[in-house]
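Schema walkthrough. Field components (list of strings):
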Amino acid sequence: RQCRNLAHFLVEDWCLSAVLGISMAFCSVGMDYWIEHLQQWHVTLYKYAQDISDHAAFGAWTGYVLVLVLASTIFVHYVAPQAIGSGIPEVKTIMRGVMLKEYVTFRTLISKMVGLTLSLGSGLPIGKEGPFIHVAATVGTLISKLTSSCNKGVYANESRYSEMLATACAVGVSCTFSAPVGGVLFSIEVTAVHFAVRNYWRAFFAAACSAIVFRLLRIFLQQTDTAVVAFYQTNFPQESFFPEELPIFALLGIICGFLGAFYIIVHRKISLFVKNNDLFKKIFKANLLVYPVAVTMLVTSLTYPSGYGKLIAGHLKFRDVLQDFFGSCSWHKTPGSDSDSLTCKRDLLDHWTGGANGDISIFITLLCFIVTFFLLSLICTTLPVPCGIFMPVFVIGAATGRLLGESVAILFPEGIRGIEDTQIYPGVYAIVGAAALSGACTHTVSVAVIVFELTGQITYMLPVLIAILFSNAICTYLQPSIYDSTIKMKR
Amino acid sequence: RQCRNLAHFLVEDWCLSAVLGISMAFCSVGMDYWIEHLQQWHVTLYKYAQDISDHAAFGAWTGYVLVLVLASTIFVHYVAPQAIGSGIPEVKTIMRGVMLKEYVTFRTLISKMVGLTLSLGSGLPIGKEGPFIHVAATVGTLISKLTSSCNKGVYANESRYSEMLATACAVGVSCTFSAPVGGVLFSIEVTAVHFAVRNYWRAFFAAACSAIVFRLLRIFLQQTDTAVVAFYQTNFPQESFFPEELPIFALLGIICGFLGAFYIIVHRKISLFVKNNDLFKKIFKANLLVYPVAVTMLVTSLTYPSGYGKLIAGHLKFRDVLQDFFGSCSWHKTPGSDSDSLTCKRDLLDHWTGGANGDISIFITLLCFIVTFFLLSLICTTLPVPCGIFMPVFVIGAATGRLLGESVAILFPEGIRGIEDTQIYPGVYAIVGAAALSGACTHTVSVAVIVFELTGQITYMLPVLIAILFSNAICTYLQPSIYDSTIKMKR
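Field assembly_structure (string):
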């Protein structure tokens, strides 16, 4: 009898974890598919309209985003307004024992998934990770409810439910970035206070299932990928940095720590302003749609590729921007002047010098990019649509790192040692910056692991760890994490 | 006042973690330095003796090991016999609240460090990891005692001590393999039941300090290394496996799961036999040195390079063996027949075909290697010297993986898809096998992360995770972990 119990337990336990992981992978790939298509259609529409007139182009550029954002706002508002925002603060609250029932219903799930697809598809500077943790937590809750109604014994009690929730969070991160190990660790750091080691293994299993199915599905959908590579595969050589550069990475960590704290402060200020300012309320809260329209207009006019958008690579989505940042070439070198492996291709440089054969300094465009998206991403988090904060922070961090890296590369054109074949790789700085800033804002160290899995390389382990520890220490000292800050505001 | 308290706390807390990490890195590099030299002298002495006569060669080969093992035995016996064995079971017991005081004294520390250097320097098939966790725990205890005697407030209470201990364990693994992230996770899985997330960060900091200092010191000592590379840096291309191979990796995981369970059973049988058999006791327990002499004679006659050692690459140390296993070339291809990038160099093949231009099949030598070291490593764990179990298991797993990988490569000579440029990399199988078997024996998933950090590559994340989950599931179901098994026996 004991043996049968054990088998029963194993099968149920394992199967449920696997089902959770695999179903979330399908969700994630399906949503990614639609988001990508929606974003592509935006660019296609814009290009068609460009042939007609400049005004039509701006109309198409703005109108498309406007339609999607408003659709998302209305859908979320009428189906389940609990889907608004990141969701990580709510999941964290539930995991601490306060049951927010309406946040984990089937209705919220649908609202969050559709709303997120629409809002991300519009190309606003928002992220997928936080909402996806919420989606996973909801799916986990539904699965455990389903089984507890079929079978009274399993998942009836509360501790089992909280285990399921922890697993779900891991799965959520895992299939956003296809980063199973980092996913498990990140979800522990973000949501848990104490952690039982025996759960660890279940979370790992579910996350691995999820990541495997996610990658296989992506191979299946994108016929070009023949092998199983990482999400943002990088191609740095093994000797991409030298011990002498470690202090510079530490400096980058310190900069990102202060920047992260500043981001959290501004986030709180903006959120409180939107919530409490009377004039603001009078103007924007009269109608549900006024505020989204205003914000969308702001974003699209800033990113409009023929205007200010030239300075901030406005026509690129976060995905493409990251690919540029993490590239192994140095942007400040002009192709043709000297052709080595570190010189970028012309079309990459066109993104960051103000269009084809533009001659704006990459330092100006990078600075504009950082400042603009710093503000835009914060404003967008106040929209009444599902939106995460991780990805924007990650991208801003990457830009900061790239900026510092290019400066260092100009200071030491022959590499830090002055020998011909030991050049500076600004791409490594971009990766380190991305990890450091997102680690600072979320108060997590495991972003390091996510970065390794996301880029498929681990050669820059030491720089990433150094920077992340410094940025974390500073930001932890100055401010609560961005999730805790949100929880405090909602009280 | 609160501010001053906080600063005080931060400085003390941070400084202590850093001091722990850095001092352990110095210990580790220092010990590695001596171990490497001791092992090199063994080979040098053997080569000198070979010029005299065969008998002298065997005498030198055996005598050198005998001297070191006996020195280690005697030193440990008279200074502190608590240093015998791995130490992980004891640390685990202490972390659960049972204070084994005599296991964490300065005397034990000296005994363990000197004993371990001698026993590893002799080249016996034993590991460094377990004892090093014990060393780190002892150093951590001493540091916290030192500070609590200077300053009554900090580290006086028990919970602070247990935090320090958890940090120390992470540092121990981190500076054995220079794997900070994997070290933190492995130490959590092996020693803890519940884990407070706020400790995590302290452990990370100490482990990162340790890994950084460890790598920098190694660069400083070995003038050849210019950049910061991993311990066993591998060089696989990004497309080193295909989704079609994933089931084979799962099979490897299943094989390793059963092999791991078998290893634990045999380990228990041998340990109990040594402990309880009357005849054995009469023969070997009469004198302290009889048993070490017998075991050493057994090991050296089996590994003697001109005898049976030909079949098991007896003249190689574990370090070199792993380098061979993890190489990106295929052993079964004879150099000269067709020269592509996957053909091994002649001198690598000489290790595994029975000496220069030998023609023994690599399948026979691999099988002999696995069986021989399976038994030898288990017998060596019963020696009264400090000795770990992780490294032997890791190597045996790598050999198993290499064996399966070479078989697959022969079955699919043109790669799994039959296209010219998609060949099988048996080295990837070796890495997966190593992770799967060591994960199974220790019941840990985080060995995966250690492997990524150890090899400096993360492209084979999915195969490693799949195999490790399968092997873990099987071994967890069949047997307790090798550490728990040891704890049970000692009761």
